[in-house]
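Exercise 7. Given the encoded structure of a 425-residue chain, write a plausible sequence.
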């Protein structure tokens, strides 16, 4: 009997796939649940129980929160990536990492096939298929939902007829929870005029009293501490997400073009992602020059498009990641964010590498570089042309020396520097 490794979320579609692959294809089904965030221990236990109830031969659970943060979310933050200027690509990062983990399991157990529960009308089918074809070129890909053109109603009926578990909520909404946000699907997404029902949103019954400030510490373009407490990337995102959820921050609707070229619409709740991207962007404004930001943002947008389209393995992605990473050497400091019910605002940024210097110029007030001598406009203009690079290259006890053009003095940037901290005593 052949073996198939099935990407298993425990939702309606993958429960159907597990049952159908056993009954109609006679596979030995190994389900693989990849935790990319958003699932509690109780959730994971319930998913495992559903797999056993369906009759799979083995169920595996993989914690991939660190992997998805390091491999994808880090670049989404550093690149300030928002699709359609609103959506932080919550699912694209997760699906790619999930496909990688399922492929690793399939290889380890010598599976004859891999399977996923994506439909034929969405983006996830591309992300899974491309990843599997790259990582497992000789293994068959089975896609029951796509092959059968199955509707949710038919999937529910199939499971009920066999006395198998039907996930709660399957009749109303499709919900995907992950480290980088939660996405919502349902009948309301098919009508661009329809508003999402209130009960579709993730909720926290706590009612915060008044505004709250949070301080995020950054090293090399990544968040490393929240209110002075050092945390890993996934821990910080989860902790910040708990706070934004209580304030109902991060709700949105994204309407855009799918990989297949059709228009699609989803709801999302991604408070931590939106706060981190906004805070990171403000810190970059303080420490990067205009053209550093221009080219980094331009390439990051392209990187996000390729990730969305399932092309995470394209070699150009590694090239762009290298440039983005290099651009973040001075994106260090602190950002202060005020949380209020339904919205947030970045209210302060500071960095030892900041390019604002009141001794040189104060916007709207005075400028030590401008003499006011109208007889020397060229001289004054040329001073301004050099201002950004001059400020970037100034000596600083905190800042590393900038990389110099080839042929000039060698760069002195240390490969690893000690993390800095503001003295808040």
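Solution.
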């Amino acid at each position: 009997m052949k073996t198939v490794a099935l990407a298993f979320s425990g939702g309606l579609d993958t429960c159907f796939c597990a049952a159908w692959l056993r009954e109609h294809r006679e596979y030995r089904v190994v389900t693989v649940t990849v935790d990319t965030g958003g699932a509690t221990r109780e959730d994971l236990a319930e998913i495992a129980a559903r797999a056993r109830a369906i009759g799979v031969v083995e169920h595996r659970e993989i914690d991939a929160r660190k992997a998805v943060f390091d491999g994808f979310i880090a670049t989404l933050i550093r690149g300030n990536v928002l699709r359609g200027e609103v959506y932080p690509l919550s699912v694209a990062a997760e699906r790619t990492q999930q496909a990688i983990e399922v492929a690793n399991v399939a290889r380890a157990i010598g599976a004859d096939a891999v399977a996923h529960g994506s439909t034929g009308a969405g983006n996830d089918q591309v992300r899974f298929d491309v990843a599997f074809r790259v990582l497992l070129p000789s293994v068959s890909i089975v896609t029951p939902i796509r092959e059968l053109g199955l509707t949710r109603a038919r999937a529910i009926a199939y499971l009920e007829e066999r006395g198998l578990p039907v996930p709660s909520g399957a009749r109303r909404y499709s919900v995907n929870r992950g480290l980088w946000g939660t996405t919502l699907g349902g009948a309301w997404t098919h009508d661009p005029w329809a508003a999402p029902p209130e009960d579709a949103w993730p909720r926290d019954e706590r009612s915060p009293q008044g505004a709250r400030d949070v301080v995020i510490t950054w090293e090399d373009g990544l968040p490393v501490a929240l209110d002075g407490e050092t945390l890993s990337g996934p821990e910080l995102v989860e902790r910040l997400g708990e706070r934004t959820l209580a304030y109902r921050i991060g709700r949105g609707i994204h309407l855009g073009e799918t990989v297949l070229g059709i228009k699609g619409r989803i709801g999302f709740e991604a408070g931590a992602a939106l706060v981190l991207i906004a805070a990171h962007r403000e810190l970059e404004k303080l420490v990067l020059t205009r053209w550093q930001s221009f080219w980094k943002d331009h390439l990051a947008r392209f990187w996000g498009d390729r990730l969305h389209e399932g092309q995470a393995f394209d070699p150009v992605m590694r090239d762009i990641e290298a440039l983005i990473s290099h651009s973040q050497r001075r994106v260090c400091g602190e950002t202060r964010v005020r949380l209020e019910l339904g919205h947030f605002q970045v209210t302060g940024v500071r960095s030892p590498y900041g390019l604002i210097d009141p001794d040189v110029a104060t916007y709207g007030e005075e400028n030590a570089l401008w003499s006011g001598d109208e007889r020397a406009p060229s001289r004054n203009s040329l001073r301004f042309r050099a201002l950004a690079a001059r400020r970037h290259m100034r000596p600083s006890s905190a800042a590393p020396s900038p990389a110099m053009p080839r042929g000039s003095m060698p760069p002195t940037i240390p490969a690893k520097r000690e993390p800095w901290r503001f003295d808040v005593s």
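Remark. The first strand starts at residue 3 and ends at 7. Students should compare their own answers with the one above.
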